[in-house]
Write a structure and sequence with these properties.
By secondary structure, the protein is of the alpha/beta class. The chain has nine helices and 15 strands. Pfam families: Rhodanese, UPF0176_N.
Length: about 325
C-alpha cells in the first residue's frame, strides 16, 4: 500500500483504485461494501461489474486503510493498489456503491484486460518512452480533460467519452504503420482497457502508464516532468496540480464541466449559471433555478453548513 505523507492542512485522504478481475458475484458485493464504507465514514463512489472494481473514496486515513483491509479479505481484491492525494475539504457529498455493466465504459464486447493487456511503463521510464520518434503518445481521456493538461507532445483524440475511443482508434491508428503506441489516462484504468482493445486489433507494441497521471505526478519530480497543466479529477477539487494539491479550476453549475480562466473571460460565461459550452441551451427556467441554488449554497455556507446541492464534475467514461 501507498504511504504518501500527510499534509497538515489537508486532513482528507483521497484514494483512487481499480482492478480488472472476474467478479461474477458483483451484485452480491454491493450491499456489504456500501454498509462498510458508511461504517467507516467514507464518501465517494465505487463501481462494481463482472470485470472488476473501480472507485475513489475520501475520509480519515484510518478509515481509508480500513476499507482496503476489508477489500483485501477477498483474495480477488487482495493488496489492491491505490493512488493517494490530499484534500483540505471533503471532495465528495455522499457514498455510493453502484452496479455497472463495465467499470469503465468502452462498449466493445470481449475486451478483458485481466487476461490480455499492453506493457506497463513505470512513471520513471515514461519520459524516455514518449520522447522516442517511433512512439505515438495518445491521451485516452476526454477532450475537456486534455485541454486542462496533458503530456508534452501527446495527441488528443477529441473524444467526448471513452466509448468514442474505439472508432477513433480504428480510423486513426494503423498496426502496420504505428509500431509503438503509448497511452495514458488519469489513474490507469482507461488506458489499460485501451491497450487490450488495440491488441485485439492486431497492434503488437502497446504501452500504458502504470498508475496513470496521478502516479506519474506523485513519482516524478516537477523539474524532470513532461506534464503540462493540471489533471482533471472526478470530485469537488476538479483538478490537481503537479503536487497533487487542488487546482483553481471550477465546475460549471449547469453542465458540470470544468470552467477555466479562459471560459470565465468569455461573454457567454455567467457566474453561478452557465459556461460557454452550455450557455446556448439553457432555458430561462433552468437559469433561475441555478441562481436560486447559488443563493441557497451561500446561505448554507453562512450558517457553516454544506449544501447538498453543490455539484461535482460529471463522469463521462
Amino acid at each position: 500500500m501507498n504511504t504518501r505523507p500527510s499534509a497538515g492542512d489537508s486532513p482528507h485522504l483521497v484514494a483512487a483504485f481499480y482492478r480488472f478481475t472476474a467478479l461474477p458475484d458483483f451484485r452480491e458485493l454491493r450491499e456489504p461494501l456500501q454498509r462498510r464504507c458508511e461504517e467507516l465514514g467514507l464518501l465517494g463512489t465505487i463501481l462494481l461489474a463482472a470485470e472488476g472494481i473501480n472507485g475513489t473514496v475520501s475520509g480519515p486515513d484510518e478509515s481509508v486503510r480500513g476499507l482496503f483491509e476489508a477489500l483485501g479479505a477477498d483474495p480477488r481484491l487482495a493488496e489492491l493498489p491505490y493512488k493517494e492525494s490530499r484534500a483540505a475539504e471533503q471532495p465528495f457529498h455522499r457514498m455510493k456503491v453502484r452496479i455497472k455493466k463495465e467499470i469503465v465504459s468502452l462498449g466493445v464486447p470481449g475486451i478483458d484486460p485481466a487476461h490480455e493487456v499492453g506493457q506497463y511503463i513505470s512513471p520513471e521510464d515514461w519520459n524516455a518512452l514518449i520522447s522516442r520518434d517511433d512512439v505515438r503518445a495518445i491521451d485516452t481521456r476526454n477532450d475537456y480533460e486534455y485541454h486542462l493538461g496533458s503530456f508534452e507532445g501527446a495527441e488528443d483524440p477529441h473524444t467526448r467519452s471513452f466509448r468514442e475511443f474505439p472508432a477513433w482508434a480504428e480510423e486513426n491508428l494503423d498496426p502496420d504503420k504505428d509500431r509503438h503506441v503509448a497511452m495514458f489516462c488519469t489513474g490507469g484504468i482507461r488506458c489499460e482497457k485501451a491497450t487490450a482493445f488495440l491488441l485485439q486489433l492486431g497492434f503488437e507494441n502497446v504501452y500504458h502508464l502504470d498508475g496513470g497521471i496521478l502516479n506519474y505526478l506523485e513519482k516524478v519530480d516537477p523539474d524532470d516532468s513532461l506534464w503540462q497543466g493540471d489533471c482533471f479529477v472526478f470530485d469537488n477539487r476538479v483538478t490537481v496540480d503537479h503536487d497533487l494539491s487542488a487546482g483553481d479550476t471550477e465546475v460549471c453549475p449547469a453542465c458540470r464541466m470544468p470552467v477555466t480562466a479562459e471560459d470565465r473571460a468569455s461573454p457567454l460565461f455567467e457566474e453561478h449559471v452557465s459556461c460557454p459550452r452550455c450557455h446556448h441551451r439553457l432555458t430561462e427556467e433552468k437559469r433561475q433555478g441555478l441562481l436560486e441554488r447559488a443563493r441557497q449554497i451561500e446561505l448554507a455556507e453562512a450558517r457553516g453548513e454544506r449544501h447538498i446541492g453543490q455539484q461535482q464534475p460529471t463522469r463521462k467514461d
